[in-house]
Amino acid sequence: MTPQPPARDAASVAAAHQADADAVHGDVSVDELELQSELSGADASATATPDVAAYALRLGDDALILSQRLGWWISRAPELEEDMALGNIALDLLGHARSLLHYAGTASGKTEDDLAYWRDEHEFRCAWLFQQPNGDFAHTIARGLIAAIWMQELYTALSRSTDASLAAIAAKSVKEVAYHRDHAVQWTLRLAGGTEESRRRLLVALTDTWPYTDELFRDDDLHDRLGDIAPRPSSLRAGFDEIWTAVLAEAEISEADFTNSKIGQSSGGGRHGHHSTHLGPLLAEMQVLARRHPGASW
Amino acid sequence: MSAAPVVDGLDSRASGGRLDQRAREAWRIAAAVTDPEVPVLTIEDLGVLRDVRMEGQTTVVTLTPTYSGCPAIDQMRDDVLLALTVEGFRDVRVDFTLSPAWTTDWMSDAGKAKLEAYGIAPPTHRAGERQGPIPLSLGVKCPRCGSLRTREVSRFGSTACKSHFECLACLEPFDHFKVH
Fold it and tell me: Coiled-coil segments, which residues (chain A) (predicted)?
């Protein structure tokens, strides 16, 4: 009878490895360290006032919902480079949403995850533009073009905010939004000047998307109260129009090609919790994991 | 932004020159932590390590993300916490700051050289130089064969900080750490 090797069941192997690891690393346990997991603005301890929180929530929701929309394209974009581009843009926007929602949550003691996953549809404050469906690639580009031109104007102005946290988030975000705008402009020109079909689809997309533009520039009583903390939306219109007009001219598109008297501007209502039919299904998909498995992490 | 004065391997701009002995030791340890996505770069090379200071018995390390959504920052935080804890720093906190916003100007020259040796074309010029009415785009040198006959395939590469290039001379694709 040959001698049996010592039992090497999984538990004893794991224990041996743990003993080796302990010998090398000591008794380190990350779980016992206090982690500050959220990004913050210029001052980590800054707390938003209720009005500033309401404002940060609007912008955070815009970024979060557009990010969720764009994430859908991953593995479905027309080519690998576009998969990566749209995924990268979505990631930047998610970063902006994290910073903005974290700051918004300081007013009410909520985390960014509480705000993203545990609010219902009527509690979201995103404008309608960002909830619009992806449509075909041209629709995604048309939506992205309006969004990026607007965000660049917004964050440029907001980086001069008297609120240090908002100014820091805006100064960080504006550099990234510049890439998003460049991406959307290049594709707008390419689709407009490509084939008859690509131009036709772009014009359909602009026709469908343009009505959600005005909502971005509407002032309300929150902006009255914020004063120098945030630019008035209406004050961003001239800068937006300048870029928009230049892009259309380069693409040889006139406004008459995608606007007509029968389609006015949407009344919107996202800033007050009144949403299009598209937001609900998006939230159901975005929130299901967190709600089905509360506290889940990896 | 002028080049950062470097004293004893420490970036005195980032540290504000306020490092006491214990904080200097903590900086040295934290500075050796590498970027999980570009492992040849330390977080000091990258300019992500902004400050190390002592608050009583607490060691406070301040990091700044490269891009807002960069997932590597969470790994860097954990790695800094581990590295300091292993070296006997018991009470460690890692803060994040967004301001002043990171640009590739924070990357050290040593970091740029390491990037190129690793096969990633480093940033070609200082951030902000391409702004203005006539943007100037400098040629990006192929890190493999050194040719300037290269072409940007996509501004969005394998990570947020990189764009995707191809070399028209040696026909190899490569990453470029884009000026930001």
Answer: none
